[in-house]
Amino acid sequence: MDVFNGVRFVRLRCCARRGKYLAADVDGLGVCLSGQRGVHNVVWAVHHAAGPDGGPCVLLRGAYGRYLLATSVQAGTGPSHGVLTTQDDLGHTPPPPGMLWQAIPRRSTFVLRSGTGRYLRANGRYLRWRRAVTSAGDNGSTMMQWDIENVPIRMTRPCILDPTYQVIDSLAIHDLVLNKTNNNGEDFVRNPPCILADNKLLIAGDDPFHSNS
């Protein structure tokens, strides 16, 4: 049975770098490794889709509303044949092959292969400060092995964030991003209090599913 069957949200933990999770960068563009398991941007929503050959695949949507994508642009870190892995909008249907992922069992873990044939790969085995995540051809490296953790759905309608949230308008979004601080004077970039979902900013506070916005 596919590991994604019946699963709505997951965390992807790098096996070679224990305690590091695939995270969506707060810029909404890049991806990286994070050691903070409890933060919202290490949770990925699972959307089922048909692959290039018609087989089962998934799209992985990050906390900022964009999808995990293996590009065709050569990466500056990792193996020489590696390419950048980013977040991108789902601009058209069907999704591009690099946005479609399959989980393939390997030993007691999984490798994640995109529709382009490249595999999601962590970096920094020896240079531990490196947090980059790329995609590359399969060379058997343990840096390509991931534990897939199911994030359970609550009794209420599932949401990536915890606790509950309120939706604020686009003017407030602009002000937050421009000034890079929230109302408490905290650094918005270093301590992001929210995620983007369907072009709305979700802030800790009230339930977005019962918001009047």
Topology summary:
Layout: E1 9-14, E2 21-24, E3 31-34, E4 44-50, E5 56-61, E6 67-74, E7 83-88, E8 101-106, E9 109-114, E10 119-122, E11 133-136, E12 146-150, E13 165-168, H1 170-179, E14 194-197, E15 200-204
Antiparallel strand pairs: 1-4, 1-12, 2-3, 4-5, 6-7, 7-11, 8-9, 10-11, 13-15, 14-15
Describe this structure in words.
It is a single chain. The chain is mainly β. It has 1 helix and 15 strands, in the order E-E-E-E-E-E-E-E-E-E-E-E-E-H-E-E. It has a 4-stranded antiparallel β-sheet, with no helix packed on it. Strands 6-7-11-10 form a 4-stranded antiparallel β-sheet, with no helix packed on it. Residues 161-213 have low confidence and may be disordered.
